[in-house]
Amino acid sequence: MPLEASARIVSELTSRGYNAEREAVTKLASADDPHATLERVVEELPADALVVQTDHVEAVLSATEADAKPTAGGQQSPATTENEDPSVSTGDRTADPTAVGGAAPVETGGSAGANRSVDPELRSLEIAGDMTGDSTGTGEYEDFVAVFRDRLEKLGSKLRGRVNHRPATAIQKMPGGGEVGMVGLVNDIRSTASGHWLIELEDATGTFPWLVMKDREYADLVEELLCDEVLAMEGTLADDSGIAFVDSMYFPDVPRTHKPSTADRHVQAALISDVHVGSQEFMHDAWNAFADWLHTAEAQHVEYLLIAGDMVEGVGVYPNQDEELDVVDIYEQYEVFNEYLKQVPGDIEIVMIPGNHDAVRLAEPQPGFDENLREIMSAHDSRIVSNPSTVTLEGVSVLMYHGVSLDEVIAELPEEKASYDDPHKAMFHLLKKRHVAPQFGGHTRLAPEEEDYLVMEEVPDIFHTGHVHKLGFGKYHNVLAINSGCWQSQTDFQKSVNIDPDAGFAPIVDLDTLDVTVQKFS
Amino acid sequence: MDEVDWPWLQDLIDGNYADDEGDTADDGGADGDGDETESNAETDGSDGNADDADDEAVDESAGPPRADPSAKFLRDLIAGRPVFSHPSAEGGFRLRYGRARNHGFATGGVHPATMHLVDDFLATGTQIKTERPGKAHGVIPVDSIDGPTVKLANGDVRRIDDPEEALEIRNGVEKILDTGEYLVNYGEFVENNHPLAPASYVYEWWIQDMADAGADTQALEDDPRIDLEFPDADEALEWATEYDAPLHPQYTYLWHDISVETFCDLATTVADGCVENDSDGDGTLVIEYSESTAVALETIIIEHRQRPDEDRIEIDDWRPFARTLGCEPRQAVTDGAALDADGQDGVPSVELERTWSDGDLSERARTWGHETEGDNAIEAVNEVAPFEVRERAPTRIGNRMGRPEKSERRDLSPPVHTLFPIGEAGGAQRNVANAAKHAETMSDTPGVVEVQIGRNRCPDCETETFKNRCPECEARTKPDYRCPDCDQRIEPDEAGRVECGHCEREATCVENIDVDIHEEYRNALESVGERENAFEILKGVKGLSSNTKVPEPIEKGILRAKHDVSTFKDGTVRYDMTDLPVTSVRAAELDIDVGQLQALGYEEDMRGDPLTHEDQLVELKVQDIVLSDGAAEHMMQTADFIDDLLEQYYGLERFYEIDDRQELVGELVFGMAPHTSAATVGRVIGFTSAAVGYAHPYFHAAKRRNCDGDEDCVMLLMDGLLNFSTSFLPDQRGGKMDAPLVMSSRIDPSEIDDEAHNMDIVSQYPREFYLATLEQADPESVEIQMGEDTLGTDHEYTGFEHTHDTTDIAMGPDLSAYKTLGSMMDKMDAQLELSRKLESVDETDVAERVIEYHFLPDLIGNLRAFSRQETRCLDCGEKFRRMPLTGDCRECGGRVNLTVHKGSVNKYMQTAIQVADEYDCRDYTKQRLEVLEKALESIFENDKNKQSGIEDFM
């Protein structure tokens, strides 16, 4: 989502005398036609309103969507238009499940057994941070610089209030002995001969070295640090003022007081990833069992399915991959995946992001699939967005990220802090750093865009990743971190490096309580 | 022919041969109606399985002996280095056993005509990766083996045995049907412990078959009217029938490469043909043209002329061919004089009669085959032909180009004339003249540069200097070691260690001092009496890397620069050449005369006759070496440098005085291999236009080299003695390598690498050997005299006989096309073009491999590098792990830029896509490229401002 759009919306609203909630602006900006939506929102605003609130925008948006749906051929609308009044005010009404089941088209319909609510008015699904079609970077040096500056800007704003910060060049000129603070990107981490740590912070003016003494409490945190994450430090300048001794260190972090939003009703989402269709190891039986289960009464509250990348096994991901492919043709892989997708009840909303095996660029952020592949995967009208993207389900925001950087976090951090056995603990670190892939130049690849899409500007309620093929979940400052397992049994490669994947599991999240239950299908 | 046509090969390599058969069956069936399809598929499928099972059974019991194909050599194919033959592919190099005189170990003989026809990609010394027996061979030209067979654009199919002819017809070549023979010596198989592969039927074997059948071969050999190796067709037939020996190899065609069915069809076609102009017995067989007949004739590589427009194919020397097919010239015609009249009327004078029908063939002959039943007609041939016919080429050897040959001066980069330190003052070129004028700031004295240099002291007058001779009293100086802590002078102990007993620190003689380069340079010019215009540029070094940091006198550099030679890190001037072996030579090919040979101690030729003629073959003495033209040129320059050095610097007499390169003959050189520290003394015997260093295999082995494309250097002996010093050698691990620390003046054959002993030294392999190859016997089980058998005897330096001669040790192109073609793209285009021309090469597979091993790794690697790259300051060169947030260089404020740009990432993208398309690569490969292309687009193009090409406006 381009920044200018938001800025334009805000100035437009201001010119009409309205203030606006941040969320509302985001929603407006991500609407199909922000301008028209804005007009309608302003029209519908209560006369006494001074602030445009999120509900106002949502109301207009859902009305528009309901209007638009029949023509767009969406899966749930034929049922709803027949049976229900598409008016905004029917939000709290329970749908008649039997009527819906009967009226649903054959290939997309919900199963009778599931008794699933298909009332679109109860549902809401919004996307933020999707950069598909907005890849404006052209791979120039300036693009890279802009991304890192944007990172410092966005994450620095979360830290500047906490320390009395000065630019690096100003600190360099300060007299020795004083107290000083700085916000910047970690440029370098070195251990000194005497076992202390030297951390170089960089801001838009230059760099300054900070020394963490090995016996200070923060010394332990040093081993959690990754290059290029944003930090704030406070400390005392040395006498020659060439270096500062760290007294305290701050991460952008998730506030301890963070209260996650929850859905207003009992509704569930299945969070999966790494399907790897086309691989000889793809577990069709497990997938079929999963799809069958979604048709049962037990799964009646599962109304959303989120897939965090690696839909297919891909081509050319590693040398001689063709010898291990069940489906060698990449397009056929997506066609087969589409067939598997069809087994999912048509009344479940699906959101997908690409992963490192998918046929998009490997560098992050990865845009959603191109038109050709979307066409192939069109059977189930899924939302295909970029990696990472934030999808908000009935108020619960889910940050979806494929998880390539987890490899790096696990490799760089000591085993007790992050390991493949507890992938969610590695995710906690990313939440703490408020960035999905901080370190540049290592494992993770970066494509420079006009802003840093990899920053977690807003705290998500759920952080969903995959990639490492291990199942793990836990809460960090009330944010639920889930790493889904996979649908691919152990490969020869995994065997050779002694990785035992968690295959054939589907973690199900209650969106009203953020509780997790794991369904096993293998 | 379709059954034995190309596609099976790649499937075999991929290991999905059986799968593909199923596919073909399905494809075939799809044309018919539904029911048939099913039944066809079923029967074909089951047949296929049965075939497979039968094949295995045949392999174990009765099938033709074949070595298993191995595709290993094709791995990591490089763009621009062509494949000459896929593994064991028809049309590829036919294995012939023997050792040519320029054969030793790790070499393979190729006909010079083939070298030209493969678009000059092969030259003497070019390395090729081979399927067997070893991994790699150095290519040597041998013209006493079969040359290539080609189909010309005019429809002629000809065997080319003359390199000149190859050059003449090269532009008209439509297809290279056969790349000719490939000569490998028996010792190669011993060295690689490779089971003997079935031998081609060749002259050497045939003549022994004849003798075995009771012919007086000596009498035949002595008969001046008979060319035993290339006899007339009638003679060949006569011997075959008279002695009951197999048909002469020159008239034995590649029957094993056509199927029994094709063989029967061919017999029918030939029987329907007629003979024209046979009045004197050498008429032309004319048969009806059809595509399948043409393909069959091309497969068995018989010379003929295809005239599709006139609906005829003409074959000269047709009798052995027709008789092999079981077609007899009609009795009435051959002896009926009356019928000659008919001939004059334009009616064919000779007609052919097929003496057998398809049903006459035995079950065994009909099902004889290797891959599939009945794909090998050799048994059928033997049943219908009135004489025995052996398999002409049962073993084909796949190979591809490895490294190109080398004959180049060894220059450091940038080249160095003198090992004198000038720091950064000489600029990137390390120009001493510039350093002599250099001043960092306005207040500095020009030419005074601070360098790290060894401090020496004169033992007599205590003068401190960095020079070897005291400037005051000319005495030899010694390194002046001092403790870095207490500045006390330390003398080295017996072990050469210099430790301060006081401070327990190692003393050093290295210090940073200001050296007046200007003065040193001027003095040096003056001392050798040279002016600055004697040379273009004099290059020094940035700093010294040796322990004591002793600089070389600039004078030496001045003289090197004058003669355009540069020094290696140890002070010597070197020339690199690819090693090739040779055991006997002719004066004529070495550009020397008999007198020169005699002066070197060569008195008689190989046969013991007195040496009188330039064409006589003499056995090479083990320490004599042949220089390439370039090496000779470079040696002459070095000799001039040495002479000047002796006269102008040391004040001694000139030593070499060489005006003409002939005067180099007899001079001694050092031969030395990389990673070794022993030089072997050699003597120059002559010169060759090939870009290689020919020498006795024992000489190469003494340097610890084999000849599969290895290269090493020669230097002039006097240069090594005068200018080499261990004090120049880097003070680090491996620093002492590649320097002539010791010298061996005499080669003891028992002390060299055993590899060289595994070289056969006989003039003929026995008949038992050839028969053993058909059993694929262990090479050790055959008795052939080897080098190791004569070790320690009086004959250890002599008696290296060979089985094959070659006209000249430098035939074929002097340089591989790989070196003469300019860009990588040109090379790759030529490589793919050649792959289309060669029958033995599957061009799609080559294209796949070039994409797979060259383009894709390049694209993927660069794309990965792009998205995690370092950046560098354009002004000061400072590197940053990540782009600085300031945008500018943190060190100097200069402009910072990427190290990996869009251009370097996608430079091969379009070419790769084009090649994949043009050569019909697999969808898998094409899709990988597609995905990559989209990734590049996504990264380098603005979604909202797509770059438009000019076609958008057309």
Automatic annotation (TrEMBL), chain A:
Annotated stretches, region: Disordered: 65-119
GO cellular component: DNA polymerase complex
Catalytic activity field: DNA(n) + a 2'-deoxyribonucleoside 5'-triphosphate = DNA(n+1) + diphosphate; Exonucleolytic cleavage in the 3'- to 5'-direction to yield nucleoside 5'-phosphates
The UniProt record lists the keyword Hydrolase: yes
Keywords: DNA replication, DNA-binding, DNA-directed DNA polymerase, Exonuclease, Hydrolase, Multifunctional enzyme, Nuclease, Nucleotidyltransferase, Transferase
Keyword ATP-binding among UniProt keywords: no
GO molecular function terms noted in the UniProt entry: DNA binding; DNA-directed DNA polymerase activity; single-stranded DNA 3'-5' DNA exonuclease activity
Biological process per Gene Ontology, one example term: DNA strand elongation involved in DNA replication
Bias-annotated ranges (Polar residues): 73-92
Family: Belongs to the DNA polymerase delta/II small subunit family.
Function: Possesses two activities: a DNA synthesis (polymerase) and an exonucleolytic activity that degrades single-stranded DNA in the 3' to 5' direction. Has a template-primer preference which is characteristic of a replicative DNA polymerase.
Assembly and oligomerization: Heterodimer of a large subunit and a small subunit.
HAMAP family: DNApol_II_A_arch
The protein's name: DNA polymerase II small subunit
Source species of the chain: Natronorubrum tibetense GA33
Automatic annotation (TrEMBL), chain B:
Keywords: DNA replication, DNA-binding, DNA-directed DNA polymerase, Exonuclease, Hydrolase, Multifunctional enzyme, Nuclease, Nucleotidyltransferase, Transferase
Gene Ontology biological process: DNA catabolic process; DNA-templated DNA replication
Matches recorded under Pfam families: PolC_DP2_cat, PolC_DP2_central
Domain DNA polymerase II large subunit DP2 central stretches: 68-490
Record carries keyword Lipid biosynthesis: no
Residue span of region Disordered: 1-70
Hydrolase listed as a keyword: yes
UniProt EC number: 2.7.7.7, 3.1.11.1
Similarity comment text for this entry: Belongs to the archaeal DNA polymerase II family.
Biological function: Possesses two activities: a DNA synthesis (polymerase) and an exonucleolytic activity that degrades single-stranded DNA in the 3'- to 5'-direction. Has a template-primer preference which is characteristic of a replicative DNA polymerase.
Subunit structure: Heterodimer of a large subunit and a small subunit.
Descriptive protein name: DNA polymerase II large subunit
Originating species: Natronorubrum tibetense GA33
